[in-house]
Amino acid sequence: MDIKKTLNENELILGVSGRLDTTTAPELEAQLGDNLNNISSLVLDFEGLEYISSAGLRVLLSAQKAMNKNSGSMVINNVCDEIMEVFEITGFSDILTIK
User: Fold this and answer.
1) How far apart are CA 28 and CA 41, in angstroms?
2) Which of 62, 86, 64, 84 has the alpha carbon at shortest distance from 74?
3) Does CATH number 3.30.460.80 belong to domain 2-98?
């Protein structure tokens, strides 16, 4: 997995590519944990993301809860069909803002 980080004042954009699974989820979790303070907008760009496991879903849920707690917003962009299907099957499409 590769993560590209862009910080624009109070907006954090993370471009995530590769596989978000049990092995790589802690890396994304660490990036989010270190950077969510004073952030009102979190954008996750999944254009290069090929796979997501339950461990990855857990990280996304934690990030959404953290942003809700801080009255911030979280948006996921550029989701491929396979990952969108996972979001729909698990009900995450109802919880997350996906564009």
Assistant:
1) 17
2) 64
3) no
Tokens coding 6: 């862009």
Q: Which of 78, 63, 19, 80 is nearest to 2 (CA)?
A: 19
* pLDDT tens by residue, 16-71: 999 999 999 999 999 998 788 889 999 999 999 999 999 999 999 999 999 999 89
Write down the pLDDT at residue 21.
Answer: 98
What local confidence, expressed as pLDDT, does residue 70 receive?
87
Q: Give the torsion sign (CA, 90, 94, 4, 17).
A: positive
Asked if 63 and 39 count as a contact pair (C-beta separation under 8 A), the reply is no
| Angstrom distance (rounded) from CA 52 to CA 96 | 15
Enter the pTM of the model: 0.95
Rounded Cα–Cα distance for residues 40 and 19 (Å): 26
